[in-house]
Amino acid sequence: MLKSNIGWLIKKSPYSREHIMKELNVSANTLSNWSTGKSIPSLEKAFILADLLDVKVDDLYERDV
User: Fold this and answer.
1) pTM, full prediction
2) For residues 17 and 26, is the Cβ–Cβ distance under 8 A?
3) Domains in the chain, start-ordered, CATH in brackets?
4) pLDDT per residue over 28-39, tens digit each?
5) From CA 56, how far away is CA 65, in angstroms rounded?
6) Residue 21, exposed/middle/buried by CB under 10 A (0-12, 13-18, 19+)?
7) Is the dihedral of CA 17, 23, 51, 35 positive or negative?
8) Are 19 and 62 in contact (CB under 8 A)?
């Protein structure tokens, strides 16, 4: 099972949520769902988000083993 680190990474980011939403072309609801782990971004969006946040795609998630 994957746990999202997206919300935490966004809070640490120098970018506003609005900037991130614009760069990814997603709604506030979508970004919120990713941040809370209710849904996950597509692989394409995950790569863009990771690049924007200056992390690896793996860093967006924490494995729950």
Assistant:
1) 0.87
2) no
3) 2-63 (1.10.260.40)
4) 999 999 998 899
5) 20
6) middle
7) positive
8) no
Reported as a pLDDT band with limits 50, 70 and 90, residue 44 is very high
DSSP 8-state assignment for residue 9: H
The amino acid present at 37, given as its one-letter code, is G
27 touches 21 (CB < 8 A): yes
- Read off the pLDDT of residues 1-41 as tens digits, 9 standing for 90 and up: 457 899 999 999 999 999 999 999 999 999 999 998 899 99
Length of the chain: 65
Q: What's the CA gap between 13 and 28, in Å, rounded?
A: 16
Looking at residue 63, its pLDDT comes to 65
Answer yes or no: are the C-beta atoms of 61 and 3 closer than 8 Å.
yes
